[in-house]
Amino acid sequence: MRNQLGWMLAGSLWAAPFAIAQHDLQRDAVRHIARGEFDQAAARLASGKKPDSGPAETLFVEMLGLLARDEIEGATAKAREALAQGLPPGRLAAGPRELLRKLPPLAEAEAIDLVHGPMLGSLTTDSVSVWVRTREAAEVGVAAGPILATAKTGPETDFTAVLELEGLEPNTAYDGQVSINGEPVEGAVVTFRTPPTASAPKPFTVAFGGGAGFIPEWERMWDTILARKPMAFLTLGDNVYIDDPEHPLTHHYCYSRRQSRPEWRRLTSATAVYSIWDDHDFGMNDCIPGPEIETPAWKREVWNIFRQNWANPGYGGGTDQPGCWYDFHLGDVHFIMIDGRYYRDLKGGSMLGPVQKAWLKKTLTESKGTFKVIASNVPFTPNIKKGSRDPWDGYPEERAEIFSWIPEHDLDGVFLIAADRHRTDLRTIDNPGSYPLYEFQSSKLTNKHTHPVVQTEGLLWGYNKTCSFGLMHFDTTLDDPQVRFELVDIDGKVHEDHTLRLSELKAD
To answer: Which of 43, 51, 142, 393 is 20 to 30 A (C-alpha) from 202?
Structure first.
């Protein structure tokens, strides 16, 4: 058995380059290193300001700065010191590889073949995707009983691969074993249950949230979510807080340190993960990059890196129309994930762009889901962020166009989930000619920064005392199908709940 790791923007708005309300010292320093600003990086690390991800992380970032200047001997000494301070050895085999490949081989890192993963995604009644990252180019396999999937990793995909296990049975529990070059990897196991078919539904649970800044003491959130045994976890943006679209090095650093966390790996090896992005993953704070595919020039590279780090069912319209929108079903519940950043155009009055908006309308119209869940990176609720055009308030005509589509096409069972605001709320929105739209919002998974609960018409409850997430318990076997919303904090305590029945979401 092999050993495994124990676990810019063109546009109308441009944020101050180093706003630190959420970001830790180490992430900020990496942004300086990516620009060759080594004195500024050192000053940021020495500032003593919070949040601070700890001495091992500081040593790792100092090592990156030395590697960037080709001071290899000093960098190697920092790496060894970081290991002594508790840095997981896999971090030295992970990323950003632009710099880490300069580091001489260290036995601790060389002993690790599976650097990140396995992470589940794209779960259907008869298949599942399994994402992995390896230390070097390899053939990777995952076996669940007699079913085997294989793929190859290499530098062109940042040593990642997505393996597709197909031919599974609905509503069935599986264990899968990961192998590298034909040898099983110790501890690299996925555990999951396929969803029921739409014609034979069963109750199931889905967790969601956003706002996952890197605060080590709060990484235990992933274990809290795992303890609730959701079938899926939806992460709706601000997933790793990059804020540096022009420098892939910062993206690789932010993704790699989250993916190296043992808590994250435990959750994602047992729960299918679905992601969309928001401003801090895609560009900069409140960014409005415009409607063009290739302008600003960094858009496509940001999209490519995003794809390398998730196992989603789709990514917008693919290479011809990049984005992160897609849809999927769990039983007879239809989830519709939208991209509110890539084509955001304030001047043109569109958050989605014409291609995605047409897709959204068509997807809603053709949906057979008992519940139809529209997942947005930012809230639809009016006046949710006073004076800001960053939520859907900045695009009121397009919001009204989407909302009016519901009564115009007699669509039952539609409700909304969203992220961005650093708290967890449940709100209702009047929709003339139809039923009120419920919006369940949550975006304080691991963030330090907190937003006050804003009083808006339709507020049912809001919570911002500590980190939290949203939980949705679906039961469509009832005569009146229902979803129960729960507001759960980082310690697993339920603070609020609300049961929403399909009879309340009837278009007639």
So the answer is: 142
- Whole-prediction pTM value? 0.95
Confidence of residue 21 (pLDDT cuts 50, 70, 90): low
The pLDDT, as a whole number, for residue 507 is 82
The kind and range of the H/E element at 175 are strand 173-180
pLDDT tens string 261-295: 999 999 999 999 999 999 999 999 999 999 999 99
Helix axes 25-34, 38-46, angle to 10 degrees: 170
How does pLDDT run across 39-74, given as a tens digit for each residue? Answer: 999 999 999 889 999 999 999 999 999 999 999 999
Query: CATH code for 205-504?
Result: 3.60.21.70
CATH class (in words) of the domain with range 114-192: mainly beta
Length reported for the chain: 508
Work out the pLDDT band at 23, boundaries 50, 70, 90: confident
As given in the structure block, the two tokens for residue 168 are 């599974």
What is the amino acid identity at position 193?
Answer: R
**Chain center to CA of 157:** 19
State the greatest distance between any 2 C-alpha atoms of the chain, in Å, as a whole number. 72
For residues 281 and 307, what is the distance between their CA atoms, to the nearest angstrom? 12
3-class state of residue 39 by DSSP = helix
| CA gap 241, 21 in Å, rounded | 11
Q: Using alpha carbons only, give the angle 442, 448, 451 rounded to the nearest 5 degrees.
A: 50
pLDDT of residue 239 exceeding 50, the answer is yes
Q: Is 471 helix (H, G, I), strand (E, B) or coil?
A: strand
Residue 249 burial (CB < 10 Å; 0-12/13-18/19+)?
buried
Cβ-contact 90, 260 below 8 angstroms: yes
Distance CA 459, CA 408 (A): 26
Q: Where in the chain is the domain with CATH 2.60.40.380?
A: 114-192
> Which element (helix H / strand E) includes 133?
strand 127-134
Q: Is the pLDDT of residue 432 over 80?
A: yes
The two beta strands, 204-209 and 232-235, are parallel
pLDDT at residue 14, rounded to an integer: 36
- Interatomic CA distance for residues 88 and 108, integer angstroms: 9
Q: How far apart are CA 259 and CA 410, in angstroms?
A: 42
Locate CATH 3.60.21.70 in the chain.
205-504
